[in-house]
Amino acid sequence: MDFQAELKQKGERAKIAARKLATVSAAAKNQALQAIADALLSNTAAILAANVLDMEAAKGRNIPGPLLDRLKLDEARIKAMAEGLRQVAFLPDPIGEVLSGGKRPNGLLIQKVRVPLGVVGMIYEARPNVTVDAAGLCLKSGNATILRGGSEAIQSNTAIVQVIADAARQADMPADVVQLIATTDREAVNAMLKLNEYIDVIIPRGGAGLIKTVVHNSTVPVIETGTGVCHTFVDVSADLQMAQTIAFNAKVSRPAVCNAMETLLVHAKAADQFLPPMLEQFHQAGVELRGCPVTQRHHRAVKPATQADWATEYSDYILSVKVVSGLEEALEHIAKYSTKHSEAIVTSDYGNALRFQQEVDAACVYVNASTRFSDGFEFGLGAEIGISTQKLHARGPMGLTALTSFKYMISGQGQIR
Amino acid sequence: MDFQAELKQKGERAKIAARKLATVSAAAKNQALQAIADALLSNTAAILAANVLDMEAAKGRNIPGPLLDRLKLDEARIKAMAEGLRQVAFLPDPIGEVLSGGKRPNGLLIQKVRVPLGVVGMIYEARPNVTVDAAGLCLKSGNATILRGGSEAIQSNTAIVQVIADAARQADMPADVVQLIATTDREAVNAMLKLNEYIDVIIPRGGAGLIKTVVHNSTVPVIETGTGVCHTFVDVSADLQMAQTIAFNAKVSRPAVCNAMETLLVHAKAADQFLPPMLEQFHQAGVELRGCPVTQRHHRAVKPATQADWATEYSDYILSVKVVSGLEEALEHIAKYSTKHSEAIVTSDYGNALRFQQEVDAACVYVNASTRFSDGFEFGLGAEIGISTQKLHARGPMGLTALTSFKYMISGQGQIR
Question: What sections of the protein cross the membrane (chains A, B) (predicted)?
Answer without folding.
Answer: none
